[in-house]
Design goal:
Length: 357
């Protein structure tokens, strides 16, 4: 469900855009997509809409181009990038020893928000894989991203935020983070899902391990894989001494400037707790159906079901910073289905701080 492009463009007519110096704002016309594909072929970095979140794209096979992504984001060099393809035949050029289950899952979930990790071929530079011998591959469904890949090459693209900050779900978010740091941003409207792809690896031919939850859920995967393991590090801080199965697990993530705390409990208990510690810069992030109108408290809502919450979460976290929120109490989402992805992002935004009321 893409917003009509003109809505995205209108939303960019605000004051912040006047700060733009070097970064060009493109739209999703054929003409602009050709321009962006030329930039990518020239080794430049472009902000690109995808169905998950906005990505920061560059030629995945060009180490110099990939280095520019890391520099623009301030991303640690050992945190690998996902490589995006538009045709299944490209997978074999990037990877080898690909299990049969990879193809079964590709058939059922691609194009879409699923990234699969497999052994990489030499053609994939160490810069892209963060020095690992594996590569994460995804075939996105967003028409703009697909066209760009078709017109250029496999595209390495992490989320287009400054490292550690919430991921961007609009072109405006990307501009706010990346203006002057990258060549262009394509405005393709709001991201449909709002959370990054599900990342999986293969323990064996019939077992997948979820390293990052997303909109392709454990339940959905279990229709095709005999065993689906949800890695411990999704709901818990990485155990001391354990090597991260995915380098992204080691780093602080998704954090606005505000101090985020997850509050686990029903609406009444949440409201009681919030009232007790109320202050001018305390904000509550609650469900649409929670009624705070009588409470004289600062609050925003982030949807009523997991799909809506995934769609809104990052935009709300950014909005809370714009409002200079000091502390944010978030009503805990459900922990199953897409809710697991929402909860995982919140846990990291909150530095694993959960208050039970
Ligand atoms: P982002 O680029 O912001 O969407 O994050 C990509 C996530 O996928 C990070 O958490 C990475 O650590 C993870 N990832 C990408 N490639 C690999 C890989 N080859 N092995 C393990 N994790 C990976
Ligand atoms: Mg990211």
């Amino acid at each position: 469900m893409l917003l009509p492009p003109q809505i995205g463009r209108q939303s960019l007519q605000c004051s912040k855009i006047s700060k733009m110096e070097k970064t060009v704002l493109l739209d999703d016309s054929e003409n602009d997509i050709v321009k962006a594909s030329e930039m990518i072929k020239n080794g430049e970095v472009v902000g690109i809409p995808t169905e998950t979140v906005y990505g920061l794209g560059a030629d995945a096979l060009n180490p110099e181009a990939v280095k520019k992504i890391f520099a623009a984001k301030g991303r640690p060099a050992d945190n690998p990038l996902i490589v995006h393809i538009c045709d299944i035949s490209q997978a074999e050029t990037l990877a080898y020893n690909i299990p049969k289950l990879f193809y079964t899952l590709a058939e059922n979930f691609w194009p879409g928000p699923l990234t699969m990790i497999v052994p990489k071929r030499e053609i994939v530079p160490d810069e892209t894989s963060g020095g690992l011998e594996t590569v994460g591959i995804r075939m996105p469904s967003h028409a703009v991203m697909r066209e760009l890949i078709k017109k250029s090459c496999p595209i390495a693209a992490p989320s287009a935020n400054r490292s550690g900050y919430p991921s961007p779900t609009t072109a405006m978010h990307v501009m706010n983070d990346m203006n002057g740091r990258i060549s262009a941003v394509i405005d393709g409207g709001e991201s449909r899902f709002g959370v990054e792809s599900t990342v999986i690896s293969f323990d064996d031919d019939s077992t997948v391990r979820i390293l990052r939850p997303g909109s392709v859920t454990a339940q959905m995967l279990s229709e095709y894989a005999e065993n689906v393991i949800i890695d411990d590090a999704i709901l818990n801080d990485l155990a001391e001494g354990r090597d991260a199965p995915s380098p992204g697990m080691k780093y602080k993530h998704y954090s606005p400037k505000a101090d985020v705390k997850i509050v686990e409990g029903d609406y009444k208990a949440f409201a009681e707790y919030a009232k007790k510690i109320k202050s001018d810069n305390l904000y509550c992030l609650i469900f649409d159906e929670d009624d705070f109108s009588e409470l004289d408290m600062n609050y925003l809502t982030y949807g009523s079901d997991s799909t809506e919450q995934a769609h809104s979460l990052f935009a709300r976290l950014r909005e809370l910073d714009e409002r200079n929120a000091g502390t944010v109490l978030v009503r805990a989402p459900q922990k199953d289905g897409v809710g697991l992805a929402v909860y995982n992002r919140l846990l990291r935004a909150a530095g694993f701080e959960v208050i039970r009321v």
